[in-house]
Amino acid sequence: METGKRVQDSYTEMTELLLPQHANAIGTAFGGTILSWIDICAAIAAQRHCGTIAVTAAIDEMQFLAPICVGDVVRLRGWINAAFGTSMEVQVEVLRERASESSLTPCANAILVFVNRDSSGRPVKVPLLHAVTPEEKSREIAAKERKRARLERARNPVCPVG
User: Fold this and answer.
1) Which one of 47, 48, 146, 160 counts the least CB within 10 Å of its CB?
2) What percent of the chain has pLDDT over 70?
């Protein structure tokens, strides 16, 4: 096996409590607060994979699925989907835990792109990712397709009407 890391090596789980300062006027989470927590969780996963600082290059997908209310426990789970030359795709799922419920509710899902950087800020090679399970392999294939689509959009930007 070539040098690299497994998906589980970068797995990151964070727990937050949604407090009033994290909420809007109707008592649900500010989207920006959730995005901030997602970015932190993803950055930790990326750093665990690379062993160096990795910076956010893009949020490729972001979906809010269900509200999170003041008093809810928020669980964030992040992992690497694919490693490319100097970049990697990181996925974070956000789950809501309520004291009155025994199950977790999916509330958000995000896919981010991180670039591995050296101490001078220059991009450096990302360690290989060894997808082991069928689910990991499927996520890696999907990540490669999203990268292809990102590069295509970058080559053919949409011009605003005006």
Assistant:
1) 160
2) 96
